[in-house]
Amino acid sequence: MGAANVIIKPIYPNTCNKGIEESSTAAGYFLVIIAQIFVAFQFIIEEKFMKNYTCHPLKAIGWEGVWGSSLYLILLIIFQKIQCPNPVTDKWNWTTALCTKNDSNEYHLEDSIFALRQIASNGMLLFYSLLFIFSIAIFNFVGITVTKIASSPARAVIDSVRTVVIWAFFMMPIVDVCHQEHFNWIQFLGFMFLIFGTLVYNEIIQLPFAKKTENENLPNITKDDQDFPQQNSNNLNENIKNLENGVENENLNSKNIRNSVAPHVQ
User: Fold this and answer.
1) pLDDT in tens, 55-107
2) Mean pLDDT value of segment 129-145
3) How far apart are CA 21 and CA 18, in angstroms?
4) Are both 148 and 172 inside the same structural domain?
5) Which of 92, 147, 166, 176 is spaced 20 to 30 Å from 16 by Cα?
6) What's the structural domain count of the chain?
7) Which domain holds residue 13?
8) 3-class secondary-structure state, position 103
């Protein structure tokens, strides 16, 4: 419910051309849900890896980058050869959503050469690209460090706060009016509901009517588990008795050896 309120469609001025974006709202919601599922799997896998293996977070992020770069290097070469059909209308379609239009008015699933030419011809675009690379590197390092020290639920709580900061930034007057967010009580309540739900789910906030009882916090104890301490105690007593008998036998053997050696020594 909180996520649904957060991603409510913003209202733009009439002077902004938002025809394609407005027609792709449903697809955007669908992609957001899929992305959340992938991020959840990433958090869980990273926590399992960091808890089971002794690995520095920086080293883990480095190897993630190596494998990710190697994978996308292969995929991008393949995507360069896939050409998309030209859209027949200006409305949203899968060609405009997934494919890139280059300077030859051709749509390709990926055109890295065209992207590099765009970055090289615009200094601000190059600056923002480098800034994005460093910010993502720091974000991943901090995130996996939180996962190692605390847990993935703690990382999820911090990640939800990050979304609130982004929303607040895009409401600032320095943002272009056609990309500026406007305060919406439904979105605000959605953010609060999302953060509160995350805190309650991870038991950081415990509701009075939803607290676990002492019996719920205790593990399920079977009859075998109850008899286990007594069995251990009996085994321990038996081992002590066997040890005492062994010591007595050793003393007896030593005495017999001394008695047998004494006449010969005399």
Assistant:
1) 888 898 899 899 999 999 999 999 988 888 887 766 667 777 788 888 888 88
2) 90
3) 5
4) yes
5) 166
6) 2
7) 2-216
8) coil
Report pTM: 0.60
Q: Lowest-pLDDT range, 5-9, 68-72, 160-164, 259-263?
A: 5-9
What is the 3-state secondary structure of 136-184? HHHHHHHHHHHHHHCCHHHHHHHHHHHHHHHHHHCCCCCCCCCCCCCCC
Q: What are the strands, taking DSSP E only, across the chain?
A: 83-84, 100-101, 107-108
Same domain, 48 and 26: yes
- Phi and psi (nearest 5°) for 107? -100, 125
Strands 107-108 vs 83-84: parallel, antiparallel or unpaired? antiparallel
By C-alpha distance, which of 69, 75, 67, 85 is closest to 110? 75
Q: Beta-carbon neighbour count of residue 99 at 10 Å?
A: 22
Rounded-to-integer distance, Cα 102 and Cα 205, Å: 51
Classified as helix, coil or strand, 11 is coil
Which amino acid, 93? N
SS3 24: coil
Per the DSSP assignment, residues forming a β-bridge with 108 are 83, 100
